[in-house]
TrEMBL record:
Residues 6-141 form the N-acetyltransferase domain. Signal peptide: none annotated. Keywords: Acyltransferase, Transferase. It comes from the Bacteria. Its EC number is 2.3.-.-. CDD domains: NAT_SF. This is GNAT family N-acetyltransferase. Transmembrane segments: none annotated. One of its GO terms (molecular function) is acyltransferase activity. It comes from Lysobacter koreensis. Pfam families: Acetyltransf_10 (PF13673).
Length: 148
């Protein structure tokens, strides 16, 4: 058991908790179909649990050899700003250090002030040499460039 009675578990949330937490943290919603397909492909993931309720999450996805991506980092708003995001990153960073082979690329997309958290774990801004390019898939193959 860690700070504030919040436990870090080395298991990523299930589909229900994942979808709920993304919305609670102000991130773009994922459909149940997308989450059901995607979550089993998690390489390593953690949950923060308080009183049996998932209140934070983070995971690593990728091909497990050449590219690793830190994704879905979220803490419920009521508990933000008290070091829980850091606890998630400490766990992911330990896994990355132990499991990522030399020459592999470790990447993430930082929203807003989360960049300050990631910078503490060695991530640097890729621009202007490289920029992130993206769209979000909508129904019927249409695309949104407001992928947030
Ligand atoms: C991003 C998020 C996970 C961070 O979680 P958190 O529990 O609030 O973060 P922490 O309290 O652990 O603070 C993270 C660190 O960033 C630092 N930080 C945060 N905002 C900062 C700012 N504007 N300037 C400088 N440092 C800042 C904090 O000082 C802290 O550093 P420290 O551990 O050395 O004190 C959380 O705010 C969240 O869920 N946001 C909504 C969802 C989201 O945007 N996720 C990220 C997607 S990329």
């Amino acid at each position: 058991m860690g700070d504030h009675g919040i436990e870090l578990i080395e298991r990523f949330p299930d589909v229900d908790d994942y979808c709920r937490l993304r919305v609670a943290a102000g991130m773009t919603p994922k459909t149940r179909e997308a989450a059901t397909r995607g979550l089993p492909n998690t390489l390593y993931g953690v949950s923060l649990v308080r009183d049996g309720q998932v209140v934070g999450m983070g995971r690593i996805i990728g091909d497990n050899g050449t590219v690793f991506t830190v994704a879905d980092i979220a803490v419920v708003p009521a508990l933000q700003g008290r070091g829980l995001g850091r606890r998630i990153l400490v766990a992911l960073d330990a896994w990355l250090r132990a499991n990522v082979p030399e020459s592999a690329y470790v990447t993430l997309i930082a929203d807003g002030d989360a960049k300050f958290l990631y910078a503490k774990f060695g991530f640097v801004d890729s621009a202007p040499a490289s920029i992130n390019m993206e769209y979000m898939m909508l129904a019927g193959g249409r695309r949104s460039t407001d992928a947030g």
